[in-house]
Specification:
Blueprint (H helix, E strand, L loop, with lengths): L2 H24 L39 E5 L5 E5 L16 E5 L2 E7 L3 H6 L2 E2 L10 E6 L18 E6 L2 E13 L13 E9 L9 E9 L1
Parallel strand pairs: 4-5, 6-9
Antiparallel strand pairs: 1-2, 3-4, 3-7, 5-6, 7-8, 8-10, 9-10
Length: 219
């Protein structure tokens, strides 16, 4: 065998050995768990539905009518809280204001309903207040507790209304005697005026048939 043939045989042998080794490696079983990462399956989340419920606002508690106040001795006492009211504040035996004629005076109440006029003259609540623009109207009976103080007043004299601590003086411009109540009207005029009406004559037995009307303008 010549030299070239020997070399070929050696190469073939070497290649055969390499082929055998590669075949052994290729068919060797692999470790399936080697290098593998465990994967935990993710659970599909549950779907929850919420219903929005509107909670109504709570009704505010009523205003207290009494309030605790600490006394000097340390004990708690209750003090009444005055209620809010649209009614006028009444003072001096139901007086809303006071009519003053010379040295005499009479209280004038708020309103001209029958119950009010049983006790005192009344101010017509739809008329102007003393000192305001318009006509302040007063109705009352003619007895000594009411408007009898007007029986001797004369034109050109003054009468005074005291209201909320302020004196309003009115000049008497006219005194009229009406035959009946149907003739009684309240003039629509500008300025600050007073009109006082009562039954007439002042000295009369029984129900007086006429009406006395005093008209004045504020000074």
């Amino acid at each position: 065998m010549n030299k070239k043939n020997k070399i070929r045989v050696a190469i073939v042998a070497t290649l055969s050995v390499v082929a055998i080794v590669l075949g052994v490696i290729a068919f060797q079983p692999q470790n399936e768990t080697q290098g593998a990462t465990d994967i935990t399956p993710v659970r599909t989340p549950d779907v929850v539905t919420f219903e929005l419920v509107v909670t109504p606002s709570p009704t505010p508690p009523p205003m207290p009518t009494k309030s605790p106040v600490q006394s000097d001795e340390g004990s708690s006492v209750e003090v009444a809280i005055p209620k809010q009211s649209s009614e006028p504040i009444v003072i001096d035996n139901n007086a809303w204001f006071t009519l003053i004629v010379e040295d005499a005076s009479v209280n004038i109440a708020y309103g001209v309903d029958e119950d009010t006029l049983e006790d005192t003259p009344g101010w017509l609540e739809t008329s102007a207040l003393p000192g305001e623009e318009g006509t302040c109207v007063i109705f009352g009976h003619r007895n000594r507790k009411h408007l009898k103080i007007l029986k001797d007043v004369k034109l050109g004299e003054t009468i005074t209304i005291k209201y909320e601590g302020v004196d309003y003086s009115y000049l008497i411009e006219s005194i009229s005697i009406l035959e009946n109540e149907e003739q009684l009207t309240i003039p629509a005029t500008t300025g600050k005026h007073i009109m006082i009406s009562t039954c007439y004559p002042f000295h009369y037995s029984g129900s007086a048939p006429q009406k006395y009307v005093l008209w004045g303008t504020m000074l």
